[in-house]
Amino acid sequence: xxxxxISPQEAAALVRDEGYVYIDVRSIPExxxxxxxxxxxxxxxxxxxSGMRPNxxxxxxxxxxxxxxxxxxxGCRSGNRSLxxxxxxxxxxxxxxxxxxxxxxxxxxxxGQLQEAxxxxxGLEVAIEPHPERTYESLLARREA
Length: 145
Known about the structure:
The protein is of the alpha/beta class. The chain is built from five helices and eleven strands. Helix 3 crosses helix 5.
């Protein structure tokens, strides 16, 4: 099944009007620097001193928090990690998953030129303080409960 990719404006409309939830798959430090208001943070990759490394708990945390029929918009920094995460979710049996193109910061070409504005650049609502029950630490604890 092919992942449906949508614009930041389309993602905002799905969250606002159709009951979708936004999963931000960026690392914890990226999320803490500003994120889609109301987003859940479940990193696909963790930032480490030696670079990014896969989060082996990604799928188990998503599964603990969201049933397979949940309506999910997946986003990241530029649209690459979120596409991979959306593909993994669909492969795991999630049926209402869309990927938000351009992520939070926008999609850029090989020369660093902005190709499509992301969530923040589109002027959509950004939060700095996460909802306490939507941080990765809180969501990971729900999986372990």
